[in-house]
Amino acid sequence: MADDGGGAGAWSHTAAQLGELLDLVDEAVVTCDRADGTVLGFNRAAARIFPRLRTGRPAGTAAAPLAHAQARGAKRFSAAHAGRRLRGRLGTVDGLAVWLLRQAGRVQGADAALVDERGRSAFLEEAAQRLGASLHHGRTARTLVELVTPKLADVSVVVLPASGRRTDWHRAGPGDARSSGEVAVEALEEVPEVANALYGLQPRPAVVGAREPDALDHLVPAEFVRGGEPLVAQLAAGGVPAGVLIMWRGPERDRFDDADVELAQRFAVRAGLALATAALYSQQAHTLAVLQAGMAPAPLPAADGLRLGAAYRPAAEALHISGDFYHVAPSAGGGVTFFFGDVSGKGAEAAVLAGHLRQSMRTLAMVAKDSEPLRDLRLLNDIVLSDGHRFTTLVTGSACPRDDGSVRVEIAGGGHLSPLALRGDGSVEEIPCEGTLVGAVPDPGFGRTEFLLEPGELILFYSDGVTEARGGASGREMYGEERLVDALASCTDMQAASVAERLELLTTEWLAGRPHDDISLLTLQAPPRRGSPPHPQPESRAGPRAGKDEGP
Amino acid sequence: MNGTRITEAARAGFDACLAAADEDAAIDLAVGLVASGVSAEDVLLRLVAPAQLKVGELWASGEWTVAQEHAATHVSSRTVDEVASAARATARPPAGSGAQGRVLVACSDGEWHVLPARILTEVLRLRGFDVRSLGGSVPPDGILSDVHRNGPDVVALSCTLPWNLPLAYRQIETCRWAGVPVIAGGSGFGPAGAWAYALGADLYAADARDAAEALLHRWPPVLRGESSVGADAVEAYAMLVRQRPALLEYLASALRDVCPGLGGSSGTEQEEGTGFLGRLLDSLAAAVFVDDERVFTRHLAFVRTYLAARSADSRCLLAMTDALAGRLNESPRALDKLSAGRRFLTGQEDGSGSRG
Question: Does B133 share its domain with B222?
Answer without folding.
Answer: yes
